[in-house]
Write a structure and sequence with these properties.
The complex is a heterodimer. By secondary structure, chain A is of the alpha+beta class. Helix content of chain A is 17%, strand content 29%. Chain A has a single domain, classed as Beta-grasp domain (Ubiquitin-like (UB roll)), CATH 3.10.20. Chain B is of the alpha/beta class. Chain B has one domain: 3-Layer(aba) Sandwich (Cytidine Deaminase, domain 2). In chain B, helix 3 links the parallel strand 5 and strand 6. Chain B is globular, with a radius of gyration of 15 Å. Classes of the chains: A alpha+beta, B alpha/beta. The interface between A and B is medium-sized, with 19 and 35 residues.
Chain lengths: 92, 151
């Protein structure tokens, strides 16, 4: 089962510069574990204390996974996953 | 150094003044690797806050898809500080995730929504390290160098 994962610039150090990699898994959690196998270190950039990091956005077929169960969001063959760091900050 | 054209500079300043006292934010996209801030894109501050900004997650996806389709990247990422200096805060530094971008900060603390000069400063923020850089405002960006030339 192949799922295309779009990788943001900041995380391409884990994918030898690749903008997109293939992974597999029937949930986002499983997909991230699969990615970690091929791209060690990437999981820690996405997940913290068993949850998605607050300032990392993940989309499945253009929908924010926060509205789809987060790491439990289900995946099917051919889905496209996009990872984008939040663009955020502020005076404090 | 950040080289930016006057119209884009003015648009960033106008956005910051308009949204004061909330923080304003946006990007200026340009061709990948060109370091040319060509396409001004004002974003909504989903946090709607005087001390925080965040692009809405759906807007963020649309923005990056659009840039991807056009072979662009965010050359400038700008936001305003409305009560403090135009210098990256610890939050700004911790959340800076675009190593190729010029992070522009505008401070509206002096004149708020009104006319008057603003602080307009630019930084590189890479792995938590902040480097301020010179800002050159030009009438227009120099013509683009052709991408391919015959030998």
């Amino acid at each position: 089962m192949a799922i295309e994962v779009r990788i943001p610039t900041i995380l391409r150090t884990y994918t030898d510069g690749a903008k997109a990699v293939d992974g597999s898994g029937d949930t986002l959690q499983a997909l991230i574990d699969d990615l970690e196998g091929n791209h060690p270190g990437i999981k820690e950039r996405l997940v913290e204390s068993g949850d998605l990091r607050r300032f990392v956005n993940v989309y499945i077929n253009d929908e924010d996974v926060r509205f789809m169960g987060g790491l439990d969001a289900e995946l099917s063959d051919g889905d496209q996953v996009v990872v984008l760091p939040a663009v955020a900050g502020g005076a404090r | 150094m950040l080289t930016i054209d006057q119209a884009t500079y003015d648009a960033i300043v106008a956005h910051a003044k308009r949204d004061h006292p909330d923080e304003a934010c946006g990007v200026v996209a340009g061709p990948e690797g060109s370091d040319r801030p060509e396409r001004f894109v004002e974003m909504v501050n989903a946090a709607g806050s005087p001390t925080f900004y965040e692009f809405d997650s759906t807007d963020l996806l649309h923005l990056y898809r659009e840039m991807d389709d056009r072979d662009e990247e965010p050359v400038v990422i700008y936001h305003s500080h409305t009560a403090t200096e135009a210098y990256p805060s610890r939050t700004d530094i911790g959340l800076a995730m675009e190593p190729n971008a010029h992070y522009v900060l505008v401070s509206t603390r002096e004149h708020g929504n009104n006319d008057g000069p603003v602080e307009f400063r630019s930084y590189r923020i890479i792995d938590g390290e902040v480097t301020e850089e010179e800002v050159a405002v030009v009438a227009q960006l120099a013509p683009r160098v052709p991408e391919e030339s015959t030998p």
